[in-house]
Amino acid sequence: MTLVSVIVPTYDRPAFIEGAVETALAQTHDELEVVIVCDPPAVETRDVLERYDDDDRVRPIYNEERLGIAASRNRAIEHARGEYLCILDDDDRWDPDKVEKQLAVMDANPDCGVVYTGGFVRQNGRIVGTYSPSMRGDIYPEILAGFSLKPYSSHMIRAECFETVGGYDTDFECGEDWDHTIRLAREYEYEYVDEPLVVRQFHEQNVSQGFAEQVEQPHLDLDKAMDISGQLWSKYRKEIERYPEIERRLRYSRHVSYGWTEIDRNNRQRAFKYGWKATKFGPSVASLAVCCFALLGPAALDFVRSVRDTVVDSQFDQSAETKLDPRA
């Protein structure tokens, strides 16, 4: 049977790590190992993982100093023995059939390097949104315009891919997932399982959220978001400029995202400036909404969010909330 390695980086979050291990071990595919790399401090995390000392499927590794998520993932990959590697953030959870269904797609598509799935977004105990996969096959250069292959904890990657494109770029404090996906997309095709097999949990300890998720997560650090965008722009500028439509869309999405965040900060003049610039790259409901809410202020946006949450709550029944491992 095919061995699958589950890669779990974690940093000082003992309340989450047990749920991550359990959601991996609960997979219907039995031949599986969980490689956990812990950044310090890790005393409480070690106490949790010691419960698995007698389970040879669970292999914790402890960094002597803080390396960050990219380097921790790389270290886990170095110790992984599986033919396929599954990404799992410590606060995300899987459907028990996830790995089995992805392997079936891998077997049917030998040219495919990565299989991802759909998922739910959970915040404050509620399902507040969904991820629906849409990109498949040759996704380059489309991937340069934005990282929409979410949740990242749904990605299953052939181990040989890391030999071809290398590991994660440690120059990225966050956004390393998008960068790595760009490099993979140059060489391999992508496929997906069109089912919500992952729950991504939003909370104040999230390392990063994507630009499109800023309306969901108003506490996102704009400076960090701009740093990701700036790093990617610098690294891939020559490639991006070869595709004018990709460049236009990237500039548009950046300005829309920055606009939403500035509205949350009540920097209304800056928010309007970002929204107005976004309309120049692509007039849309989103760019015009940024301009409108920049004038109306964050209170109006909070009201719209509360209405949205009420509608969303009515759309998702309790079974969606309990389908995946509910432990956080």
TrEMBL record:
Pfam families: Glycos_transf_2 (PF00535). Gene3D superfamilies: Spore Coat Polysaccharide Biosynthesis Protein SpsA, Chain A. The keyword DNA-binding does not apply. Keywords: Transferase. GO terms for molecular function: hexosyltransferase activity. Residues 5-122 form the Glycosyltransferase 2-like domain. Transmembrane segments: none annotated. This is Glycosyltransferase. It comes from Natronorubrum halalkaliphilum. The lineage of its organism: Archaea, Methanobacteriati, Methanobacteriota, Stenosarchaea group, Halobacteria.
